[in-house]
Amino acid sequence: MKRSALSLHATRMAVLALAIGSLAGCESLNDVLATDRVNYKDTPSAPPLTVPQDLSSAPTDQKYIAPPPQMALGNAPKGTVTSAGNATLGTPTAQDPLGMHIERDGDRRWLVIDGRTPDDVWPILQTFWQENGFALATDSSATGIMTTGWAENRANIPDDWFRRTIGRVIDFAYSSGTRDRFRTLVTRGADGQTDISITHSAMEEMLTGQEKTGSKWVERPRDPALEALFLSKLMQKFGLTDAQSKQLLTDARTSTVVAKIDNAAGGATLDLPESFDRAWLRVGLALDRTNFTVDNRDRAKGIYYVRYADSMQELKGDGLLGKLFYSPKSAAKNQEPEFLIAVRAKSDVQTQIAVLDQHGQVDTSTQAQRIVTALHAQLN
């Protein structure tokens, strides 16, 4: 018997409520990081991510291309054996005996790899996301930005008798009504380190209309536990054991400084009491937590190129009707304007963040001040 849209929606809500309730009641990191919480490998198809033509390509000038790293067999850097017996990707030190550690700012976490460059880890990251069931929508080693396509976490679908019998035949039509996407930022850090952050974005299909006959996609909050889970899985990809990766997450080093708004420049700017390297990383993380998407970035100039992200537009191509009637060209025409976020060192321990206009001056528009306010909230 075909279930009604309302019944299907009720099932989805019950499953999500159970998952959220279980997570809220967890008392151990093992529960939060359980690998059976995710299964993107069985996703039959993921909604396409449309990137405007004028934003899809990164600079290809030879001076921006790093020389190829030294690779071992399997096209991956050779690991270093630690005192614990791991062949870890990182370089073990007295401070980091496993060659890596986790830092955190509130519920934001990132992985620090010792002795490796972004070029060393990039091919491993490509393989990592593909092994976890994701197609890559953005794969730009020149900018250090890697974004997966939208995919469904099939672990959220109840494995009841209906699915185990009839549902297996039409499993492609059995859906949780949710989609997830992950953005990875890879940044060259200080002292030969590489910083890797993973940010989660989510959408949910909600029924609309008095009779609940229609539906629309709405944004869901990011899930810090999912971000931590994939950081744990990534550390295991880099050579750690499951227990070691969870221990590093437990022992995450706190890194928090307060950003202050400065209105003296004619438009709102932010001051961060830390070095450029640190501020550059934290601004990238903060932008990932807002509704602004980093399309490009130039570390040498200290510029992030961002635009307002409309996830609804990116999901309109999902399904048969969407593929027939959704036009990437029309989406490009409706694209939001691009903003320039400047990160500039005022001293060795002080950095200024500002939104610039097309002439390189501090932008005093209402939109620019909203961006500054959003960054201020994320950095504190």
Automatic annotation (TrEMBL):
Keyword NADP included in the entry's annotation: no
Domain of life: Bacteria
Residue ranges the record marks as coiled coil: none
Record keywords: Signal
Annotated Gene3D superfamilies: Outer membrane protein assembly factor BamC
Cleaved signal peptide residues: 1-24
Keyword Lipid biosynthesis: no
Protein name: Outer membrane protein assembly factor BamC
Originating species: Paraburkholderia denitrificans
Gene assigned in the entry: bamC
